[in-house]
Amino acid sequence: MLRRRTVTAGCALAISALTLMTAPAIAEREPAGATGTSALKPPPGMVEAMQRDLDITAEQAESRLLNEARLGGVEVQVRKKLTGTFAGSWLSGPTSATLTVATTDASAASAITGSGVQAKVVARTLGALDAAKQTLDQAAAQAPASTPVWYVDVRTNSVVVLSSQPAEAESFIAASGVDRAAVRVEQSSERPQTYYDVRGGDAYYIGSSRCSVGFSVTRGTQGGFVSAGHCGSTGSSTSGFNRVAQGSFQGSSFPTNDYSWIAVNTNWTPQPWVNNGSGGNVNVSGSTVAVEGASICRSGSTTGWHCGTVQQRNTSVTYSQGTVYEVTRTSVCAEPGDSGGSFISGSQAQGVTSGGSGNCSSGGTTYFQPVNEILSVYGLTLRTSGTTPPPTGCSGSQQSFTGSLTSGASAYQPNNSYYQSTVSGTHTGCLDGPNGVDFDLYLQQWNGSAWVNVASGTSSGPDETVSYSGAAGYYRYRVHAYSGSGSYTLGLSRP
């Protein structure tokens, strides 16, 4: 079903009317002849994420971005005109098509009201609300644990205090000295907390001892990471690089083996990354074993990022605590505190640092416990960032684009934008999707106010072709995952 965009323009109060855009809202550049606020192309994936998280269509997401850009400019002008009587503003509706402006000046309401803009007369200015919140801020040290959040709410013209124990919140408010009439208490179970990433090579602590994260893993819905067994015993608690409580050892083996896995709490998010020692990350895409002689690098919290080569697999090494079997010997250096850290070859996880000799000043030899054995023993899944390569069909097209879709999602090509055809002629599109899915292809044309489907391929399989003889204008392709997920290739040719 075709959905029209909602575009809002203009506001009174001595503000010049804004001109409606007559070209598509999402563009690599604004087409010649279009006026008004320039609509920049959203970052890749933004429209899809808005569809998913705001429960709106792609067309509504595009309209929302356009309206927000345009009405944002209107809001700035209105705020300047109202000065000391301004009391806040907000957008509403699935496409952000309505801007409400609050003011304490009833005489200004009629001037504010216009196409897509409405006024609301309230008791307190935004400055008064900000001052009330600042009074609470100054008393923040006395806020009870049950009352973790307060904010200015322009929609209700009040300062809202969230608390699981309203009586405790009332005591906090009274002690702060704030104007009670400006404050509302809402019962809430919110318990805000900070979040941290689990990343290979970063430090973690077991009491006063420090080791390094190997690789992020999951077991079912539980996230965590693997590391060396000599770093801690089963049940031992860990804290992260920042000394924030992190998790506990779920399994540990040393000597004979030298591996462990640690489950983390909800403050921590396991990521498919390894710290590269210079402010960036190396993505982990799998755990294919590197051939002897291959280059390999290690990340650890003491010495950072160092590289060498794989020397021998299936090595036995004896430490003072006993012998560890079936480790891999490398020419990479390491030092105390690097234990448990990531060994990676290219983007392939290899293992966790066990021990060695020498140091990173004069050089050394280091051994790692292969990661695939750890995954197998504990039933873990390696967190990876890799995706299945897109199909390679649709050769012979003028242009080719690739992407990946989850079931029910859509993508727009070329590059979440459109193309312009300056002459009449035939447009052809070829979609090559992965086996076992049902992907559909739609060619859409801009009719001056909305995108209209002019050709489609909607068979029950992954591959589609469309052909359309059309006039000059703006066109784009919509690739839709009717069922199934995976990568695709789209080839297109145009007049």
UniProtKB/TrEMBL annotation:
InterPro entries: Pept_S1_alpha_lytic, Pept_S1A_streptogrisin, Peptidase_S1_PA, Peptidase_S1_PA_chymotrypsin, Streptogrisin_prodomain. Keywords: Disulfide bond, Hydrolase, Protease, Serine protease, Signal, Zymogen. Residues 1-27 form the signal peptide. One of its GO terms (biological process) is proteolysis. Residues 124-179 form the Peptidase S1A alpha-lytic prodomain domain. The keyword Disulfide bond applies. The keyword tRNA-binding does not apply. Pfam families: Pro_Al_protease (PF02983). Belongs to the peptidase S1 family. This is Alpha-lytic protease prodomain-containing protein. The lineage of its organism: Bacteria, Bacillati, Actinomycetota, Actinomycetes, Streptosporangiales.
